[in-house]
Amino acid sequence: MNTATLARNGMILTEHESEAVEPLAHLASKVTLEKGYTLRSFLDMVRRYPVLKTLSIYIPNLQDECSQLPDSGCRSDGLTHMELIKRVEMIGFPGDPRLNILCTLHGKYNDQEQELRLFQLSSLLDMPIKLGMLTHKVFGDSVSIMEFDTDYSLFEFIEGIAWEFGFQRFPEHCSIRG
Fold first, then answer.
1. Which residue from 26, 55, 57, 67 has the fewest beta carbons nearer than 10 Å?
2. pLDDT score of 38 more than 80
3. Residue 123, Cα to own-chain centre: how many angstroms?
């Protein structure tokens, strides 16, 4: 599997440490994050590679909202970082079982999870982002959750962040009513 490093300045770097010319060609690549990567870095990446904003309807609204924030200092004392988590859920038992695989962004204060919706975007823009574990939840049992090391593709990373902020900030896009 090819690897793409996401740099703090918004660049996508290939395995050869050169800048990716065609970002869509790297959507299946395994992602690593440069130390200090933030939500601002994510937005810089989307600005640098405009084609990436076509991957999610939530990205343009997130860009618009963040463009009105200060150029630095957008941090919260209530978080140490944000963490992308891949979650596999087996649900629907008894009945018709199904499997869901989701990538979501969570706030963390050390090891304690914090709901991001409780924080203003102005306190999240400069918080570090980390890649977390895969969690496996079977039939809604929150006691028997297993965790595994996992990889994230560039697409999963982009969609996980975009969906989380789209859902948190712009719930009208997520309405299950038509």
1. 67
2. yes
3. 16
Give the model confidence (pLDDT) of 65-107 as tens digits: 899 899 999 999 999 999 999 988 877 767 788 888 889 899 9
Q: How many CB atoms lie within 10 A of CB 102?
A: 15
Percent of the chain with pLDDT over 90: 61
Amino acid at site 175 = S
Q: What is the DSSP string of 102-156?
A: EEEEEEEETTEEE-GGGS-GGGTTTSBEEEEEEEEEETT-SSS-EEE----BHHH
The per-residue pLDDT of the chain, averaged, comes to 87
Alpha carbon of 4 to those of 27, 31, 34, 98, 173: distances in Å? 9, 5, 10, 32, 30
What is 41-54 written as a DSSP string? HHHHHHHHSGGGGG
- State the angle between helix axes of 59-66 and 154-169 in degrees (0 to 180), rounded to the nearest 10: 70
- Alpha carbons 68 and 53: distance in angstroms, whole number: 18
For the CA atoms of the chain, what is the radius of gyration?
17
